[in-house]
Structure prediction request, 238 residues.
Amino acid sequence: MPRVSIVIPFYNCPFIDKAIESALNQSYKNVEVIVVNDGSTEYSEKIIPYMNKIRYIEKANGGTASALNLGIKNSSGDYFAWLSSDDLFCDEKIEKQLAFMREKNAFISYTNYSTIDIANNYINQIAGENFTNKISFLKNLQKGNHINGCAVMLKMQVFSSIGTFNEKLKFTQDYDFWLRAVQNYEFYYLSEPLVQYRVHDRMGSRMYIDQQTKEIQFLQEKYNHQIQRIINKEKDNI
Prediction:
């Protein structure tokens, strides 16, 4: 059975132990859990009880993209999954998504997700967006990033094809990657919510909204022509 590498970037997050537990508790057992400590000064002690069950890597602080890329470099899996240190995987996330991808012969897929608060209470049990066709999916991707990074699973060979995450982008490395990947691969969508996305005051999308907005605008301008070309091609095929 294929091996799945779950990479967890960690930086000063009080929920890291919960994230690790959700990765270790997967019903699909051929996984490796790689925790990359991106120069944390807080909460590293929460990782200690799991040291004999995970691969643990420490590095100087460089941002989420650099932590993801180091995890990818040290992965041995056939597939990659990303779990943020404040989020959770449902127990059957890897099993269901992997089966879905193998059925579809997919290189990249993403699932729906739920939102939770700091006490793990549901805010919205179905928070993701569903698109009826590829054109609507692409048009939405032009406007913003509707794909939750932790909902994505992809074959490792995708990185060999288009490269890894852009370390120059501190808040939108995932959006950049999707905009590059969609030019070469189909994104398959599994509508079941298999990720619990935690909403809290210290999350990056709230603390650094201005910087994130600037990066989003930069990427939209950079990739608009390429995405529009794919949309026009899809329209011609209808």
Q: What stands out?
A: The two ends are 38 Å apart (CA to CA). The chain is about 35% helix and 25% strand. The chain has a mean pLDDT of 96.
